[in-house]
Amino acid sequence: MKTTYPTRTVTINDIDELRNLFRSTIQAVNIQNYTPAEIEDWASCGDSTIHWKNLLSTLYFLAALDSEGRIIGFASIRADGYLHSMFVHKDWQRKGIASQLLSEIEAYACRFGITQITSEVSITARPFFEKQGYSVEKSQKKRAKRLEMINYVMKKEL
């Protein structure tokens, strides 16, 4: 039987948890596809509290929680259907959390008339998104802070 995790919208009070999850996931999970310098550059993108406040003011954020109410994954989407982020805690990988978050984000999008979701996904995340029905539009080099890294523009019609 598939486990369903409780979810809730993210608030400004969650920034420290989001920042820590973002950094630790990139450092532990994405290291298989990116260099240590790329990982540190990418992970540093989540260091600024002001940056997180700006994201929270412009995106819909959904968090998955463990039994004690801690955030174990999150996803965010813009009003135009751009999936900005999806990260699952390094200790909670391969437990259906990303699939659940994406399903709930897609349902949210449909409720607001969004008919297509686009995203820029890492090398690491590409196979997951392909299994969820997303197709690669193009490969690109995207700047984190200082360095450019390969990722993929992907989309799915809802």
Describe the 3D structure:
Residues 5-158 form the N-acetyltransferase domain. α4 links the parallel β4 and β5. This protein has a seven-stranded mixed beta sheet with strand order 1-2-3-4-5-7-6, with helices on both faces. The chain is an alpha+beta fold and 158 residues long. 34% of the residues lie in helices and 31% in strands. The protein has a domain at 7-111: Aminopeptidase (3-Layer(aba) Sandwich), CATH 3.40.630. The chain is globular and about 35 Å long. The chain has helices spanning 15-29, 36-43, 49-58, 97-111, 126-131; strands at 7-9, 60-65, 71-77, 82-88, 116-122, 135-143, 148-157. It has five helices and seven strands. It starts with 6 loop residues before the first strand and ends with a strand.
In short:
Helix content is 34%, strand content 31%.
CATH architecture of the domain at 7-111: 3-Layer(aba) Sandwich
User: Largest beta sheet, briefly?
Assistant: 7 strands, mixed
User: Overall pLDDT, averaged?
Assistant: 97
> Distance N terminus to C terminus?
26 Å
Poorly predicted spans: none
Strand order of the largest sheet: 1-2-3-4-5-7-6
Helix content: 25-40%
The Cα radius of gyration reads 15 Å
- Amount of beta strand: 25-35%
CATH topology of the domain at 7-111: Aminopeptidase
Strand segment tally: 7
The CATH class of the domain at 7-111 is: Alpha Beta
Q: What do we call the CATH homologous superfamily of the domain at 7-111?
A: Gcn5-related N-acetyltransferase (GNAT)
Order of helices and strands: EHHHEEEHEHEE
In DSSP terms (H or I, runs of 4 or more residues), the helix count works out at 5
Class derived from helix and strand content: alpha+beta
Regarding quaternary structure, what we see is single chain
The coarse overall form would be globular
Keywords: Acyltransferase, Transferase
InterPro entries: Acyl_CoA_acyltransferase, GNAT_dom, N-acetyltrans/Recomb-assoc
Protein name: GNAT family N-acetyltransferase
Pfam family, one: Acetyltransf_10
